[in-house]
Amino acid sequence: MARPQYDAFVAQLRDLTDEQWQFPTDCAEWSVRDIAAHVAGAADEGAHLRVLLRHMRRRKRYGRAGLVDGLNDAQLADRAGATTTRVVDDLERLAPKAIAARRRAPGPMRRRTVPGADLAPGSTFAYLFDVIFARDVWMHRIDVARATGCALPAVDTDAVVVAQVVRDLGRFWTAAPLELELTGQGGGSWLLGPAAPVARVSTDAVEYLRLLSGRVAQPALAVDGDESVRGPLLRARVAF
Questions:
Q1: If DSSP codes are grouped into helix, strand and coil, which group holds residue 66?
Q2: I need a labelling partner for 180 at 20 to 30 A (CA). Which of 81, 119, 187, 220 fits?
C-alpha cells in the first residue's frame, strides 16, 4: 500500500514551482516544503535506526511535550538548509528503504504496543509501520494539493487507505449504528455499529477524512434517517 503513495507524492512534489514550495498548508506552522521535509525525515527514520535514535535524543531541544511533535521538529531541522530538489531526491531514495526496513522488523517488535498517547490505545508497531505511515503520506498529498491548487491524481491504493481509516473509526464507534457512504476519490460504503443502521449518511471521502484527522474541515453530511448520528460523526477523530 505504501509504495504507490510515496511514488505519487514524489511525482506531485516534482511538479511544484519554487513559489508553491513556500505556500502555507492546513498543517499549522508548516509550508509545503515543511511537509515534504517531514515525510522525507520520517522515511529516513524508517530506513536508518541511527537517524531515529538521533532524532529521539534531540527532540527535547525544541520544547515540545509530545513525542511526535519533537520528532517532527528534528525531521525539519535535518533538511533546513537543503534545496527542494534534494528534499525530493532524499524522499525518492529513502522511501523504498523505509518500507523494506519496516517489513523486516522482527515479530516481537511488531507485536509490541507503541508507547505514548498519539495512537489509539493498544496500537502495535506493526500498525504504525503498515498503516499509519502510508496514511500519513496520503493525507499530506491532500495537504499539498489544497495548498497549491493542483489536482490530486488518483492512486490505486487510495481506497485501501480510506477503508483502513473507516475500519479504525468503526473499532471505537459507540453511537447509533449507521451506513456510511463516502463519495469521490477512494470512497466506498460501510456499516458502523453492530446492529441494523438507523440512518444512511453520505459525504465526501477526502473532506470527511480531513475532519477525522483533526484538520479544519466542514464535510457536508447528507443524513437519510435518524439525525442523531450527525453529531458523533462530526466529533469523531482517527489517528493519522
A1: coil
A2: 119
Task: Give yes or no for a contact between 181 and 163, defined as CB atoms under 8 angstroms apart.
Answer: no
Neighbours of 237 (CB within 10 A): 12
pLDDT in tens, 75-120: 999 999 999 999 999 999 999 999 999 999 999 999 999 877 678 8
Helix (H/G/I), strand (E/B), else coil: 197: coil
Q: Which residues pair with 179 in a beta bridge?
A: 191, 200
- Using DSSP's 3-state secondary structure scheme, residue 138 falls into helix
Instruction: Check: pTM over 0.90? Answer yes or no.
Output: yes
DSSP 190: E
Class of residue 126 by CB neighbours under 10 A (exposed 0-12, middle 13-18, buried 19+):
middle
> Cell triple for residue 110?
511488531
The continuous run of DSSP H or E covering 44 comes out as helix 32-47
Q: How far is CA 16 from the centre of its chain?
A: 21
> pLDDT, tens digit, for every residue of 134-181?
999 999 999 999 999 999 999 999 999 999 999 999 999 999 999 999
Residue 32: name the closest of 122, 141, 130 by CA: 141
